[in-house]
Amino acid sequence: MQRRAAAAYVVLLLVITAGAFAFISTAEEPAVSLEDPDETLQSGSTLTVNDRVYNVSDVSASSGGGGGGHGGGGGVSYEAVLTWTNESAQWSETWSNNSTVTYQGDTYRAFIANSSEPTEITLRWEPTDRFSPQWTDGVQYLDAEPDTPDRQAMRVDEYIANSNNTSIQTVTIDTTSSLEFNGNETTITTAPQQATFTWTAPRTNEVTFGQHENVTLNGVSYAVHFTNEDTVTLQEGEDAQAALYAQLDDKSRFHERINGFWGVVIVASLGLVLLVTLAFLPRKE
Fold this sequence. Notes:
It is a single chain. The protein is α+β, with helices and mostly antiparallel strands. It is built from 3 helices and 17 strands. The longest helix has 42 residues.
């Protein structure tokens, strides 16, 4: 009687296990895509958005990342890199008093007066490590004869004054007029012990995004879907983003159901083993 009851339960568990496994085998995972995408991009492509031209410098995928964005990437991280050039970008560089700066390709120490609007900047040659420079009580010294065995300590300003080398002579910048700086026409604004150089020049900007992220390009919002490791599609508008997220939610629920059925298979299989084991245990008379 015990074994007949166990056999009935075994059959029931086999039916449940087979049904769950059949569902897992035949169920189709919901597809995720952008319906009629506005753009399909690969490395080397260009994209124009409101008269701004983007160059696609990279579309790639790497394993082990997690994918980023809504819905993840199943352990695969996708990335697209777009660049665009602002031809009239504003650049600036600020110098502080007694700081080392680079001017016309050479390194100097800048001295800026502690007045409301300094009218000039004094640039003093900055000795390299060869001269073993060091500071003592606010004064910089160097080895005046670095090729001799013993250090010949001398103040830097004295060394410059006694040198015939024109390349290390002091340079003075007039802050009341513009000048050529970093290859561009530059204006200077000053404050106590500080000067700021401002100029206009091209700047390359970079936009990076991953799988299923929302990206805004020159004021236009796009939904993102990578179809493979070297192709990404974009579709404009919030409706496209909402539709994409709905697909991702459907896919997430599908995997939750599949995981549930795998749980049924595992529990039913363990039940089968337990029932068979118990049914054939020897009986005590």
